[in-house]
């Protein structure tokens, strides 16, 4: 491994996931499923674009890039573990925060974030009932507010600019500056990295700004997919991921899987590797057909898979359940 790779958190995610997959007993990747899914996506992939990012659900104002940046960092500081509350979904987080910023442009000012408490986060998202892990969400926001004030004049936009248009550098900065984004674990004596919220923040900045201005990155293709709890469901339903009977029974019975357990780690790692292999297969197919797919990358592939999950949410089997701040 070269020095540069040692510094590359996205490489660390790929390497971690590949290592886990070399040991897996509970989850396997069906290469026939990869081939089939790549064939079915060959017509859509050339149209993948950062511009598919939803600017109506999310806060967007072309005149306020700083405010958009602050919104996206807060969004992805809180973008985890909705499932303990029946009916609570990502759209309530994105939409609630958007309304908060539209109602009060200072709602996400770093000073406000640095002093927020649990009920304050609930009010920010316009939720009536206590949020899952509500005090943790408040602690994570206080950490973001304090660190922004300490190092970036309170502005997420300054943090983004400090990365010099490198997605890899921005993942490194986010995981260096904010403890809450350090999505890693020790498994069988090894440190494994997933960095889901740090990477999805970079993906969301790229998407919100349609790959221009603050959202311009020269290496966005370095990001991996975002190891959440939705995309594994889609890959399982599409015959790409196969669960051992014991794991399938636990997931389908909605039993909680402990963070860092073999079950949870194998699901997350296999999802990362499967999407990397799917991307490679799609790129090979399109190149062989002489077709261009300028924005085919793990980010746009991830978004397609996640939205495929949203489209089929009623019919798909349950997602795995891990109580965590990471995804
Ligand atoms: N891998 C991946 N995970 C994603 C997203 C998003 C939303 N991204 C939007 C922004 C731009 C794109 O166009 C997407 O529309 C949320 N999540 C994760 O899902 C879970 C919530 O699910 P549910 O309970 O159903 O709301 C939770 O862990 C959340 O962190 C994604 O894109 N990729």
From TrEMBL:
Pfam short name (any one): Q_salvage
InterPro entries (alphabetical): Q_salvage (IPR019438)
GO-annotated molecular function: hydrolase activity
EC primary class: hydrolase
TM stretches of this protein: none
Keywords: Hydrolase
Catalyzed reactions: queuosine 5'-phosphate + H2O = queuine + D-ribose 5-phosphate
EC number(s) given by UniProt: 3.2.2.-
GO BP terms in the entry: tRNA modification
Family: Belongs to the QNG1 protein family.
Function of the molecule: Catalyzes the hydrolysis of queuosine 5'-phosphate, releasing the nucleobase queuine (q). Is required for salvage of queuine from exogenous queuosine (Q) that is imported and then converted to queuosine 5'-phosphate intracellularly.
Protein name as annotated: Queuosine 5'-phosphate N-glycosylase/hydrolase
Organism: Chlorella ohadii
Lineage: Eukaryota, Viridiplantae, Chlorophyta, core chlorophytes, Trebouxiophyceae
């Amino acid at each position: 491994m070269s020095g540069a790779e040692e510094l590359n958190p996205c490489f660390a995610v790929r390497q971690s996931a590949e290592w886990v997959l070399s040991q897996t007993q509970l989850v396997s990747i069906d290469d026939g499923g990869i081939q089939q899914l790549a064939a079915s996506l060959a017509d859509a992939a050339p149209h993948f674009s950062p511009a598919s990012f939803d600017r109506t659900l999310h806060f967007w104002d072309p005149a306020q890039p700083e405010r958009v940046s602050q919104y996206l960092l807060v969004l992805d500081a809180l973008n985890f573990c909705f499932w303990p509350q029946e009916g609570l979904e990502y759209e309530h987080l994105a939409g609630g925060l958007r309304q908060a910023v539209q109602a009060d442009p200072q709602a996400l000012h770093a000073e406000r974030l640095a002093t927020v408490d649990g009920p304050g986060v609930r009010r920010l998202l316009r939720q009536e009932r206590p949020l899952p892990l509500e005090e943790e969400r408040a602690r994570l926001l206080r950490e973001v507010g304090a660190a922004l004030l300490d190092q970036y004049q309170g502005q997420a936009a300054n943090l983004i600019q400090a990365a010099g248009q490198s997605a890899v550098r921005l993942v490194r900065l986010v995981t260096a500056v904010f403890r809450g984004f350090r999505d890693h674990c020790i498994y069988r004596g090894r440190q494994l990295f997933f960095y889901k919220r740090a990477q999805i923040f970079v993906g969301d900045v790229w998407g919100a700004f349609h790959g221009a201005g603050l959202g311009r990155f020269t290496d966005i293709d370095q990001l991996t997919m975002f190891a959440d709890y939705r995309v594994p469901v889609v890959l399982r339903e599409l015959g790409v991921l196969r669960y051992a009977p014991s794991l399938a029974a636990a997931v389908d019975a909605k039993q909680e899987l402990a963070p860092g357990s073999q079950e949870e780690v194998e699901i997350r790692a296999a999802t990362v590797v499967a999407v990397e292999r799917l991307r490679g297969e799609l790129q090979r197919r399109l190149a062989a057909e002489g077709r261009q797919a300028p924005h085919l990358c793990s980010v746009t592939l991830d978004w397609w898979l996640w939205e495929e999950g949203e489209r089929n949410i009623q019919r798909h089997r349950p997602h795995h359940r891990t109580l965590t701040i990471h995804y």
